Amino acid sequence: MAQLTFDDVRKTFQEGNNEIVAVDDLNMEVRDGEFLVVVGPSGCGKTTTLRMVAGLETITEGQIELDGRSIRGMSPQDRNIAMVFQSYALYPHMTVFDNMAFGLRESTDLSEDEIDDLVTETSEMLDIKELLNRKPSELSGGQQQRVALGRAIVRDPDAFLMDEPLSNLDAKLRAEMRTELQRLQEEFETTTIYVTHDQTEAMTMGDRIAILDHGELQQIGTPMECYYEPANEFVAGFIGEPSMNFLRGTSDGGVLRMEDFSYELSQSTVESIGSTTEITLGVRPEDVEVVPEATQTNDVAVEVDVVEPFGKENNLYLKPEGSDTDDTIIATVGGRKSVNEGERVGMRLPEEHLYLFDRSDGTAIRHPTVEAEEITPVAE
Amino acid sequence: MSVLTKIRNTMERSSSPDYRSENDGMRSYLKSDFFRSMPFWLPPTLLMGLFVYGGILWNFVLSLTDFSGVVRPEYSVSNFDFEMYFRMLEDPSFWSAARNTIVLLVVFTLVCLVVGLCLAIIVDNLLKGQGVFRTVFLLPFALSFVVTGVFWQWMYNPEMGTINTLFDIVGMGFLGQDWLGDPALRLWSVMFALMWQFGGYAMIIYLASLRTIPQEHYEAAKVDGAGFFKMYWKVIIPQLSSASVSIAVVLMVFSLKAFSWLYVVFGSNPGPAADILGVMMYREAFAANQWAYGAALGTVLFVTTVVILAPYLRYQYKRGEL
C-alpha cells in the first residue's frame, strides 16, 4: 500500500524539431488504498502518466513520489509496481502458472514452494485455478484478462497500474469485470491508478476521477463532484452520457440571448454571472423537460428531429422552431413516453438545473442549485 | 443450314437425356479445376520430375553399379549391389569428411544462430543507424561463395593477409597463424569465414521476428522485475523459437553446400582437416573417375539433407504454413 504524489510532472516528446507536450505540470495525489481513474480522450496524456509511474517513460520535469521517496530515474524492476496492459501482454510461451509466477521469481527471494502457494491461492480467488497449466493462446479473452490481473495481484505490489484493461472485452463481460475489479480492489485496498477513455468506467469504478485533456489536469474529484460540479466546460461535456447540451449565448441584463431563443434569468443567477457577457449555457439531457406545449416564460417551441429509443428511456433530439442550423438539444425522457419524430412540443430548461460557463476560458461560473436528495428509510 | 440452326440443333441434342449420360463424365472432367489448371502445373512438374527427381534416381541407380568411367555403366539388376556403400565404411577419408561435415553442420549452425541473435538484439536496440547496420551485416550474404572464398583466401594469407597484418600492426604478431595451412585451424577458419557470410542472414530473420513481438511483452517483463538479460533470456528469446528453427534449417543446408567455398579455396582436395562430403563426392567422381563411388556419396548427402529437412517440413505443414 502506498501513496503516490505527482509534483509538477511534465513530459515532452521530441518529434523532429518539434517538442510535443504529453503531460503538462501535473499535480495530484493518489491516496493510500485509493482507486483513482484517470480519464480523457485519446492523446490526453493519461497513458503517458501511467507509464511514467511504471518507469516505462522518463519524467522530463518534476517528481513522482511513492510513499515519500522519489521514483524518478528508478528502473521499473525496483519500483514494486504491477501493471495490467490493455493487450494483457501475457507471455505466450509460458503456462498460466509460469506467467503468474514470473514476477515473483524475478522480484522476490521466495522459494518455489512459497511461489506455488501464492499462485494457487490467487488463481483460486480469480477462479482460474483449472487454467494454470494452459497456455495463453488456449484461453478466451475474459480468461486472459483474469490471468493478467492475477499476474499483477499475486505480487502484492505497492500500487496497481491498469491501462484500459477492459477495452478488449465484449460489453457484457466488461460490465462483469468492472464489478469484479472493484471487489478485488476493495479487498486488497491497494492503491490503483486505472486509465480509461470510457466515462462509464470512470464514473462507476473510481473513488475519485482525474480528468485530463491535452496533457493538463482539468479536475480531480469524486465521480459525483465531477458530474454535478464540473470545473469547466470540458469536464461537463466529457462526463455524462449522452453529453451535456451546450448553447452559446450572450448575457444582456437579466436575459441570456441564444441564437434561437432567449432565457430570462433569476436575480441570484444574474449575480453569479457578474460582468461576464459571453456565456455558454449547459444542461444535462435528463434535466431537459419535454412538455406538450410551450406555455411558460422560458419554454421553447421545438420540433422532435430524431427519437432514439433505448427501452428504459428515449433520447429526443429537439430542434427549436425557426432554427436555421442543424444544432439540436438532446432530452432524455422515460421509455414509455410516446413521442414521434416531427412532432411539435415544448422544451423547458429548469433554471435550478442549469450550468453556466465563461466562454472565454470555459470555467464554470454556476452549477445547479438542486440539493442532493437523501434516501430516508420509512419509519416503522 | 445457317450457323444459328446448327448451334440450336447441337444444343437440343446435347440436352437430350441419352446424350447427356454418355458425355457427363468426360464433360465434368474437362470442366474440373484439375484439368483446367494443367497448363500451369504440368510443364514445371514434368521438368522438375525429369531433371531433379529423375537425376536423383539416376544417381542412386549409378551408385549401385561399379562404373569407374572406363566402360559404360551396366544397368542390369544382376549387376546392382551396395559395394560402394560398404567401401565407404572402410574408407578413412569418408570418415574424416563425414566428421567434418557434421562438425560444420552443428558448430557452424549454432555459432551463426548465436551471433545472428546477438547482432539482431543489438541492432534492434539501436536508436539510430539501424538501416545502415542491417545492410552492412547482410551484405556478405548477397555475395557468392566464389567471391567470399577468394576474399578470405587473401584475408587468411599468412604473409600478406589482412588478419596477420592487423595483428602485426597492433603489436600482437605472435597471434598470427597460417590459418588455412595449419590442419588444426583449417576447419575453424573455414567456419569463421562462413559465419561471417551467414551471420547477417540469421540476424535479419531474427530482427524481423523480434519486430513481431509486441512492445508490451518487454514492458511487462520489466515491470515484473526482470533486468535486461533476464527479459531477453526468459521472455523474448523463447518467442523466437520458430525463427530459430527455420534459420537453422537454412544454415544446415548451406553448410552441406559449402562445397563451392572449399573448392575455390582448396581445389578438390582440402585434406582430411577440412574435407567435407560434398567436396569428396566431387573429387571421387570428377577427379578420380570413381563415378559410382561419387554417386554413392551423393546419395548419402541427399539422405542427410532429407533427414534434416523432413522434420522441419512436417512442422511447417502441421502449422499450416506449407
UniProtKB/TrEMBL annotation, chain A:
What the entry lists under Pfam families is as follows:
ABC_tran (PF00005), TOBE_2 (PF08402)
Reactions this protein catalyses? L-arabinose(out) + ATP + H2O = L-arabinose(in) + ADP + phosphate + H(+); D-xylose(out) + ATP + H2O = D-xylose(in) + ADP + phosphate + H(+)
Keyword Cell membrane present in the record's keywords: the answer is: yes
Provide the top EC class. translocase
Which terms does the record give in the GO molecular function aspect? ATP binding; transmembrane transporter activity
> Which subcellular locations apply to this protein?
Cell membrane
Protein's UniProt keywords contain Translocase: yes
The membrane topology of this protein is:
Peripheral membrane protein
Q: Which InterPro entries match?
A: AAA+_ATPase, ABC_transporter-like_ATP-bd, ABC_transporter-like_CS, ABC_transpr_MalK-like, ABC_transpr_MalK/UgpC-like, Mo/tungstate-bd_C_term_dom, NA-bd_OB-fold, P-loop_NTPase
What PROSITE patterns does the database record attribute to this sequence? Answer: ABC_TRANSPORTER_1, ABC_TRANSPORTER_2
Stretches assigned to the ABC transporter domain: 4-239
Spell out the Gene3D superfamilies in the cross-references: 2.40.50.100, Nucleic acid-binding proteins (2.40.50.140), P-loop containing nucleotide triphosphate hydrolases (3.40.50.300)
Function, in words: Part of the ABC transporter complex XacGHIJK involved in the uptake of xylose and arabinose. Responsible for energy coupling to the transport system.
Family affiliation: Belongs to the ABC transporter superfamily. Carbohydrate uptake transporter-1 (CUT1) (TC 3.A.1.1) family.
Task: Return the protein name.
Answer: ABC-type D-xylose/L-arabinose transporter
Organism per entry = Halorubrum glutamatedens
UniProtKB/TrEMBL annotation, chain B:
User: Could you tell me which residues belong to the region Disordered?
Assistant: 1-23
Residue ranges annotated as transmembrane are 40-61, 102-123, 135-155, 187-208, 240-264, 291-313
ABC transmembrane type-1 domain location, by residue?
Answer: 98-312
Instruction: Please give the GO cellular component terms listed in this UniProt entry.
Output: plasma membrane
How does this chain sit within the bilayer?
A: Multi-pass membrane protein
- Keywords of this entry: Cell membrane, Membrane, Transmembrane, Transmembrane helix, Transport
Q: Which Pfam families match?
A: BPD_transp_1
The record's principal subcellular location, in a coarse class, is: membrane
Q: Where does the record place it?
A: Cell membrane
- Family classification: Belongs to the binding-protein-dependent transport system permease family.
Q: Mind telling me which PANTHER family this protein's record contains?
A: ABC TRANSPORTER PERMEASE PROTEIN (PTHR30193:SF42)
Protein name per the record? Carbohydrate ABC transporter permease
